[in-house]
Amino acid sequence: MAGAAVTDERRELAAAARHFYQRGWMVGTAGNLSARASAGGFWITASGRHKGELTDKDFIRVDMDGQVLESPDLQGRPSAETSIHQAIYRAFPETGAIFHVHSVEANIAAHWGEKGRLRLPALEMIKGLGVWEENPLVDLPVFENLPHVPDISALIAERLEQERPQIPALLINLHGATVWGKDCTAALHHTELLEYIFRYMVTARMAGLGGYA
Ligand SMILES: CSCCC(=O)C(=O)COP(=O)(O)O
Ligand SMILES: [Zn+2]
Hints:
Elements lengths: L7 H15 L9 E5 L5 E4 L13 E4 L5 E3 L11 H10 L5 E5 L2 H6 L7 E4 L17 E6 L5 H14 L6 E4 L3 E6 L2 H23 L7
Parallel strand pairs: 7-8
Antiparallel strand pairs: 1-2, 1-5, 2-3, 3-4, 5-9, 6-7, 8-9
Helix pairs in contact: 2-4
């Protein structure tokens, strides 16, 4: 049924997507969202859907290998970036939700990354991402935006096995951030906080603050 209200975990995912769409972080069909499903596996947005008005039919339930378990829209296929979500759920079993957004600020900030890392300014906001030290040195992992998504996922899986990021997030160069949390609420807070930090970095450079300290 067109426009039907979303149910189960999809309700929170659709609300988060609408919120990000309104902020310009999921324009067009950009971005994807997932949450572990009480029925097993995880719900993820179907590929190529507009994120401003998602309904039940815009989600697909897949298992941890990405195999489809449930697809309310028979034409739908899981997000092209499902393998990235799989890599994160596998690496961090406590993760309940993963949001991937495309913001302008993230793509500008990515230019300042070096050797696969982007040093974040020691803003108070970092505490909301779980780092409570004074003047912390926080590096966000940055990955190349390879044309074949499973190649990016393989790099992510390999790196997450070697090192746990200091904050629950990673960045794909000239593409966007992927952020996670124990549930949709935590993932939403983390996404907003990280995007605030990117916005600060860009604004500080424009204000001539030198670096972004
Ligand atoms: C229009 S954005 C290009 C694809 C992408 O990066 C994205 O996040 C959305 O892909 P999906 O398959 O999840 O719709
Ligand atoms: Zn993307």
